[in-house]
């Protein structure tokens, strides 16, 4: 295969960012774009440096034989089903976070990849950050001892933007603008449980630990938001997770909790029996490390960053601390060159399923729930669904 002929689905802010990335990277050619909001087609086509076909319906794009793969930049309840539909239509899939919103869609994605051998990749950037590799090496070398506790949180204060959208123009409107834009409707961000967005935190931590979640429980503040009562979302949801290697993870997510803009969305911590590492808490701060066996009496500042010191020139300024480049480079190399994905379909779904079950746990009064094993076993052969118990 030469260039991957790709169809870009979802033409909002992230979709346009992906469009620009795919145009600047060798190995891609955008042959189609798709969004149900026809008003968004023109700006996407204008941003391309070559002709492409615009579709208002997803099924029409999947029927296009000039499309080898789908770049799925949507945020909706059916996101996982859309990915599965593309795989069923013979298209490779690179999907924005989160992968899916139901376990049924998780299984549908996994089994379809197993049956077809097509590539599914979750476009989750944070696992590609520079400090994540270093933390992973510290754990693998035993420098931190046995890891017992991890924390990760995505507190992305979106204010009142992106929660309401005009279905005809695609424009987003704040709560304060609703009086002038009565036709604006709640977006999926308004309805999606915040905890569903945890792949951004679970993915890097599970990479650091080389582990998977086996059990989860969670709690939530009440709805609607205390900060913005017009938004029917809890401000904070928190999950406790147990891993296969017997570590405890605390993971939090929220979109309406006010925080200083300088603090950033992401924060992480890893505690082991012989040391610990912690991400910075503000732009003025630095990441911290303590090693019990290295004559260290306190946490020491370390100049770890999102940006990698070994990044190629084309990664620079690609977004998310240069990590957006790696999302598309990994997918390209897997589809075009047959290179095995480190972040394969199993690791991708292992970041999505615990978040889905965390929301289910909240709905069930914080009941602990088991996370399925998505890899093939003797009880679940490759390409089959798990048998119902009992």
Plain-language structure description:
The protein has 390 residues and is α/β, with parallel strands linked by helices. The chain has ten helices and 17 strands. It has helices at residues 13-24, 41-47, 58-62, 79-88, 103-116, 130-140, 188-191, 199-209, 324-337, 345-363; strands spanning 4-9, 28-34, 53-55, 69-72, 92-95, 120-122, 147-155, 164-165, 185-186, 213-220, 237-243, 248-254, 266-272, 275-278, 288-291, 300-301, 369-370. Strand 5 (92-95), helix 5 and strand 6 form a beta-alpha-beta unit. Helix 4 (79-88) runs parallel beside helix 5 (103-116) and helix 6 runs parallel beside helix 8. The chain starts with a strand and ends in a 20-residue tail after the last strand.
What's this entry about, in short?
With 390 residues, the chain is of the alpha/beta class. The protein has helices at 13-24, 41-47, 58-62, 79-88, 103-116, 130-140, 188-191, 199-209, 324-337, 345-363; strands spanning 4-9, 28-34, 53-55, 69-72, 92-95, 120-122, 147-155, 164-165, 185-186, 213-220, 237-243, 248-254, 266-272, 275-278, 288-291, 300-301, 369-370.
Alpha-carbon distance between the two ends:
47 Å
Task: Report strand order across the widest sheet.
Answer: 16-15-14-13-7-12-11-10-17
How many E strands? 17
How many H/I helical runs? 10
In terms of DSSP E residues, the strand content is 15-25%
For the report, how would you describe the main beta sheet? 9 strands, mixed
Shape: globular
> What ranges have pLDDT less than 50 throughout 5 or more consecutive residues?
none
Mean pLDDT, all residues: 94
Secondary-structure element series: EHEHEHEHEHEHEEEHHEEEEEEEHHE
- Helix-residue proportion: 25-40%
Given helix and strand content, the structural type is: alpha/beta
Radius of gyration over all CA atoms, rounded: 21 Å
